[in-house]
Amino acid sequence: MPNIPAFSSKDLEKALKNLGFTIDRSKGKGGHYKAKSPIGIKIQPGQKNFVIIPHTKEIYEDLRNKILKEVKSFGFSEEQFLEALKK
Description:
This protein is of the alpha+beta class. Helices cover 36% and strands 13% of the residues. The protein has one domain (9-39, 47-86): Hypothetical protein (Metal Transport, Frataxin, Chain A), CATH 3.30.920. The protein has three helices and three strands; from the N terminus they run H-E-E-E-H-H. The protein has a three-stranded antiparallel β-sheet. Strand 1 (22-24) and strand 2 form a beta hairpin.
């Protein structure tokens, strides 16, 4: 698995916005939010069209890897995701 730097839910939210996702704070359970896929991204049958943003100060490593995998399923590369985190 790739070594992804630590980030918070706020960092993840900003990165997903930079990639074109739309944040919907009214959806999700508890303090979690949904980031809906960017317009124009083709969704494969059976693929969900959102990424869950957990409400936590720091996202642990296993969850960071899962989030990266979900973001990559929308056609983004690991480099694009890491660059969006830096912005």
